[in-house]
């Protein structure tokens, strides 16, 4: 036995005896509420934004959890308290009113939908040579691939077979096609840009922008507000609005790889002005059926004015033989629906679709009529000419006379070669 030194002995402090029934327990110290809380978090992560209008946000979640046998009873009141006391105060759910379903963090897609979005991004990055999409795709691929959420060997159900004809690696370092991040920032902020075209760049029409001079050393610089980056058929284009000179207010699309930035202007315009300009651009684009919007600001303004619109539009009439008209009548969306009319389809009797209301022609070789009302500048659209000429001798141009002459000249020029 050891000997206790009486001099060094210190008595223990008095211990307060507490009745265990008086202890305050944590509301989730019991297994049942704790398990319900964890299961709720887990379910929302994998099934975000469940919502049925008649049931509301909370009851939609409860019903879905019942259906999946995550919970066995309708405990909507308990889950409501979980949300109010834990999920929102601790930042697990966003701290604002969720009216269309619950989500956690940035998890707004199920795993299946997430992989679908990834595959679409993959197709865009690979097929369209989008440098921004490619950068995001690499991050996306690593984060989905490392934890084996998306497998690289999985079958590519969807693909984009459009292809950018421009090799980005061969472009100068100052090309807009490479400075996409700078361009996107300028578009979002409504920044005025000084732009120029690379010497020797190809163009289908001779544009006169002599008054768009802001650089005494180079008359080709011009000021414009960038509005949107668009992929069309073969490459990336910048949609912009001229900001000065005789073309002030003119909307135009131009290939990104043909443009580069000049000096910084440090000028911004109000976002509402930017949105209003974009709306005008989109209206012109939809009406034109393509990205060629002409080179005449007066015509564009007339077309956007409902009272003067008729002065800036023209009706094109084409006659097709039976063989090719089967293809034409299947494609009901090459131009805005409200601007087109055709004679009845060959394989349908008692046609009721208002699109197919024109009378047939009296020409036995070309009995099928097609009409489309387009802006006048469409007569100079190379894509429209390609579309018509591509049908060869199976289409006959009737109106307008200037289009008849254009197509005839193209045919004669081809025939002279052979």
Strand order of the largest sheet: 4-3-2-1-5
Low-pLDDT ranges: 1-6, 206-217
The gyration radius over C-alpha positions equals: 33 Å
Portion of residues in helices?
25-40%
What structural class should be given to the helix and strand makeup?
alpha+beta
Shape: extended
The total count of helices amounts to 11
Would you mind describing this structure in some detail?
The protein is an alpha+beta fold and 418 residues long. It has 4 domains: 24-87, no CATH class; 111-145, no CATH class; 172-198 and 211-303, no CATH class; 312-417, no CATH class. It is 34% helix and 16% strand. The chain is built from 11 helices and 9 strands. The strands form 2 sheets. Strands 4-3-2-1-5 form a 5-stranded antiparallel β-sheet. Strand 2 and strand 3 form a beta hairpin. Helix 1 (31-46) crosses helix 3 (76-87). It is extended.
